Amino acid sequence: MKTKFAGLFLAAALIFVPSSCSARSKGTVERIKVHGKSLEGNLEGDSPDRDVSVYLPASYASEKTRRYPIIYMLHGFTDSDDKWFGFTKHWINLPAVLDKTFGEPGTQEMIVVMPNAFTRYQGSMYSNSVTTGNWEDFIVRELVPYIDAHYRTLPQAASRGLAGHSMGGYGTLRIGMRHPEVFSSVYVLSACCMAVPDAGIAAESKKAEAVKDPAQVEQADFMTKATLASAAAWSPDPQNSPLYLALPTKDGELQPAIIAKWHANAPLSMVDQYIGNLRQLKGIGFDAGDRDEGIAARTRELDHVLTSYHIPHQFEIYEGDHLNHIADRIETKLIPFFSGKLAFVPVNPAR
Asked: Has residue 313 been placed in a domain?
């Protein structure tokens, strides 16, 4: 079916495809375009018109007056919504996972939305930057209102969850702790970038210095790409054409002012500033695989910080790596978590 309608995927702004599980719990996917004024004029030259995949649960078409809670899902670095939503073969097919999950006891149907944050440097970091564009603002101030205006959501923070994997987990922490007025609950899967150790930054930045033009990014290794994307998001430099970023090293030497900017964007560095916001959240959940060693260590640190502030949260280190259990974590942990935390009826607008 995907081959038959491939031309329509490119030609239409709104695309309907059925997900692939059993008919009893079969949802529908729409792929739309959302214009981001916050993304206009970004120095990378990425289009401000972003693809967004929207999963509508099985009952959405038949129950015409029903409104739904919504989960905003953020994908990881080098990923995109088309990969997660089955348009491109990938290590996960989110609609298939959701079809299966919403048919199980203890779960309630929700709308699930994922914006395409693949950029010239292969990931936005969901941060505000003149180089990458203001991705945090796009999600909070533009994407959420757009979805509320075009779908039967429950347009209230109590009914909105935010979740993500890897870079998307980073974005979930960053945005979730800063905007409890928009999202009431967050779930983080194997978040990257919670802390930025100087030694690791220096080694990768020295390699990234060899990249002199954005056209070379495609041939770079994963960590070089990640370093460039992080610099574009956290240390933009509008005077440094054609990359428009400042790396944490110059001629192999650490640049303290740039390193400071990176630390300022690390959730474990900023978390103490947002304790009041975190206390407002109805639900906080996060996990990581034990073989994803660096990320697991930072995940444990986040648990320690929230525990020290007596902030309730759900936390687990499970047997696995960065990818191999994400689908079943969504099925057995993330969706049941939001089924219990989000409001499925209108509540006091103040909350």
From this structure: yes
Q: Which of 264, 299, 318 is the last residue of a domain?
A: 264
What residues does 160 pair with on adjacent strands?
A: 70
82 assigned to some structural domain: yes
Q: What are the pLDDT digits (tens) for 50-60?
A: 999 999 999 99
For the segment 114-135, what is each residue's pLDDT rounded down to a tens digit?
Answer: 999 999 999 999 999 999 999 9
Burial of 335-345, coded b for 16+ CB within 10 Å and e otherwise, reads: bbbbbebbbbe
Strand residue runs (E) in 61-208: 70-74, 111-115, 128-129, 133-134, 160-165, 185-189
Give the sign of the dihedral formed by CA 311, CA 300, CA 162, CA 24.
Answer: negative
Residues 190 and 206 in one domain: no
CA dihedral (314, 320, 326, 330) positive or negative: negative
Task: Give the DSSP H or E segment for 32.
Answer: strand 28-35
N-term to C-term CA, the chain = 43
How many residues are present in the chain? 351
Domain's final residue, options 245, 264, 283: 264
- Look at residue 143 and tell me if it is in a domain: yes
What lies within 8 Å, CB to CB, of 233 at 6+ separation is 124, 125, 127, 129, 131, 132, 135, 265
347, part of any domain: no
Tell me: do 204 and 161 sit in the same domain.
no
Region for 296 from its dihedrals, namely left if φ exceeds 0, alpha if ψ lies in -120 to 50, beta otherwise: alpha
Owning domain of residue 256: 199-264
The two tokens of residue 184 are 């009431």
Instruction: Measure the CA–CA gap between 27 and 228, rounded to whole angstroms.
Output: 37
Question: CA 118 from chain center: how many Å?
Answer: 11
User: Do residues 129 and 101 make contact, with C-beta atoms less than 8 angstroms apart?
Assistant: no
Q: What is the mean pLDDT of the chain?
A: 92
pLDDT in tens, 88-113: 999 999 999 999 999 898 899 999 99
Structural domain total, the chain: 2
E strand or H helix at 254: strand 253-254
β pairing state of 160-165 and 253-254: unpaired
